[in-house]
């Protein structure tokens, strides 16, 4: 059984999923990519918007997209460094 | 009387420079480990790693300060008839050196023990306090047998190396390999340090190998940061 993800890890996974989709993703896709339930996604998205890590837009076709911001990219970079640090040192 | 100087005279001061490089590398890694801890307060491992590297850096600071005082070479001139002779001698205070060396040894063993306990987590908390106490007591007795200190550090490093080796095998990660090689080189330097009484030049070799170990550690750590950034860009 894998390790339980911390809050920071979940945020990192979410931002990484957005980044992999070239910076924008539909909320449903994000939910599956980041392995979250609907309620969890809602809670985390609120936090990410509040922290200005992501923003949301609505297209004329009424599709909602989540976009990663510069601040979110910077956080993602730090998180990736931290994950690499963890892998290399073997914690 | 306890022998205070292991270095050959031509090497005085150069070992201080080597230790300063080690301090900078250790402080650099400690700073980043603490930054990662600030990012994810749930992971105590980062804080422990930061503290262990800080302790090692402080131990080198103590060594540098002690050696700096020890190597305060004084120049004297003596006139014999019409000729003037100039010679140098080393001025040192035994008590200051003994205290500085004790601090250096204690902090080094505590630093590596903390690193060891990071990899071997299943230890009872009371056991850890007992270990810290025994380390303190045993460090005191390294006066009569200095090589025991290097032997202790060598064994701690062997245990750490085993875990790093397992990690390398499992992850096949390139920075992890560099970290393994760096710790192996530092362990090797401890072997050389054990025999410095036999041959003065071995001290130079040991310091050189230690410097190489810390440089590899720096390269390995820079690779960790580079690979982290690369993942985001890809």
Structural topology:
The complex is a heterodimer of chains A (91) and B (234).
Chain A: H1 7-20, E1 24-25, H2 27-33, H3 38-50, E2 54-58, E3 64-68, H4 70-89
Antiparallel strand pairs in A: 1-3, 2-3
Helix pairs in contact in A: 1-4
Chain B: H1 14-39, H2 44-70, E1 72-80, E2 83-91, H3 94-119, H4 125-140, H5 147-171, H6 174-194, H7 201-233
Antiparallel strand pairs in B: 1-2
Helix pairs in contact in B: 1-2, 1-7, 2-3, 3-4, 3-5, 5-6, 6-7
Question: Please, could you describe this protein's structure?
Answer:
The complex is a heterodimer of chains A (91) and B (234). Chain A is an alpha+beta fold and 91 residues long. In chain A, 59% of the residues lie in helices and 13% in strands. Chain A has a three-stranded antiparallel beta sheet with strand order 1-3-2. In chain A, strand 2 and strand 3 form a beta hairpin. Chain A starts with 6 loop residues before the first helix and ends with a helix. A two-stranded antiparallel ribbon of chain B has the order 1-2. In chain B, helix 1 runs parallel beside helix 7. The termini of chain B are far apart. The interface between A and B is medium-sized, with 22 and 32 residues.
């Amino acid at each position: 059984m894998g390790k339980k993800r911390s809050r920071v890890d979940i945020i990192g996974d979410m931002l990484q999923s957005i980044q992999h989709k070239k910076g924008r993703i539909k909320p449903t896709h994000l939910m599956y990519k980041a392995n979250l339930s609907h309620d969890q996604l809602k809670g985390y998205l609120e936090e990410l918007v509040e922290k200005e890590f992501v923003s949301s837009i609505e297209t004329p076709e009424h599709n909602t997209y989540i976009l990663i911001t510069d601040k979110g990219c910077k956080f993602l970079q730090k998180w990736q460094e931290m994950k690499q640090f963890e892998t290399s040192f073997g914690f | 009387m306890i022998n205070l100087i292991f270095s050959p005279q031509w090497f005085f001061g150069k070992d201080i420079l080597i230790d300063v490089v080690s301090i900078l590398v250790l402080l650099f890694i400690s700073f980043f480990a603490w930054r990662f801890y600030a990012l994810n307060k749930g992971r105590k491992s980062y804080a422990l790693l930061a503290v262990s590297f800080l302790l090692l850096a402080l131990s080198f600071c103590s060594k540098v300060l002690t050696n700096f005082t020890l190597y305060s070479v004084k120049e004297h001139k003596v006139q014999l008839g019409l000729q003037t002779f100039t010679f140098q001698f080393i001025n040192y205070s035994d008590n200051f050196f003994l205290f500085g060396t004790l601090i250096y040894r204690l902090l080094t063993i505590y630093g590596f023990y903390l690193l060891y306990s990071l990899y071997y987590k299943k230890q009872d908390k009371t056991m850890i306090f007992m270990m810290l106490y025994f380390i303190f007591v045993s460090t005191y007795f390294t006066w009569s047998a200095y090589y025991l200190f290097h032997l202790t550090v060598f064994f701690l490093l062997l245990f750490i190396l085993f875990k790093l080796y397992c990690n390398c095998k499992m992850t096949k990660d390139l920075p992890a390999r560099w970290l393994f090689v760096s710790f192996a080189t530092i362990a090797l330097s401890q072997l050389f340090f054990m025999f410095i009484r036999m041959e003065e030049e071995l001290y130079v070799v040991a310091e050189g190998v230690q410097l190489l170990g810390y440089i590899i550690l720096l390269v390995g750590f820079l690779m960790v940061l580079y690979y982290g950034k690369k993942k985001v860009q890809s």
